Amino acid sequence: MTGQSDTVLDVEALDVRYGPVRAVRGISFGVARGGITALLGANGAGKSSTLMAIAGVVPVASGRVSLFGKPTAKTTPDAIVRSGVGICPEGRRIFASLSVEENLIVAGTAVATPQVAATRREEMMERFPILGERRRQLAGLLSGGEQQMLAVARALMGAPKLLLMDEPSLGLAPQMVDTIFSIIEELQREGISILLVEQNAALALEVANHAVVMANGEIAGQGAPADLAGDTLLKSAYLAA
């Protein structure tokens, strides 16, 4: 793990517990400034619990999470978002009964002045033309891929420096998966750092600069994506997706 001057996220000896269950067991890793770290593993490995602890949604039992060089202990999820973190949760969690535009209005209200939010909203419509075409359509009527685009657009309303993405390819058709991963690469080129929680290991390893493989709440391996992809034992045990 590199020094804090080179990272936007540092996770150190992180433990997450749900009552007596130790879901995350003393893991450490980082996200480089302008890089993509892929967090991989099977269902139940502890990936989403790790992401939720970073986002402040679940408490850290022990260890430390630092964002942009500052520990996040006792920091609320809202404050974490305002510090420069965007979140694309698993299952997208858009407001299905609101229009596409209203989803972005709600997101903008929390992170920017009305004028800035309005400008960013139009930028999102330009970045994702399908959302612009359907801005008045109920978000619940969008396809899964379009809803994922909306989830990304919503997260970008805060102009984040770090994007936390939880299973962005889940349930999408192959063509739409390719589109979403192209968007991820584009965001990185723009300088946004990304923590990518993903079961599709092959695609995640293609776009990542660093990869972390979790199993049973622990880190089974981490390093350069090419090295992990070439590790036959690790690949067969944990990267079968």
Automatic annotation (TrEMBL):
Keywords: Amino-acid transport, ATP-binding, Nucleotide-binding, Transport
UniProt cross-references to Pfam families, sorted A to Z: ABC_tran
Example GO molecular function: branched-chain amino acid transmembrane transporter activity
Record InterPro entries: AAA+_ATPase, ABC_transporter-like_ATP-bd, ABC_transporter-like_CS, BCAA_Transport_ATP-bd_LivF, P-loop_NTPase
Ranges for domain ABC transporter: 9-241
Keyword Secreted included in the entry's annotation: no
GO aspect biological process, one term: L-amino acid transport
Entry's family note: Belongs to the ABC transporter superfamily.
PANTHER family from the UniProt entry: HIGH-AFFINITY BRANCHED-CHAIN AMINO ACID TRANSPORT ATP-BINDING PROTEIN LIVF
Name of the molecule in the record: Amino acid/amide ABC transporter ATP-binding protein 2, HAAT family
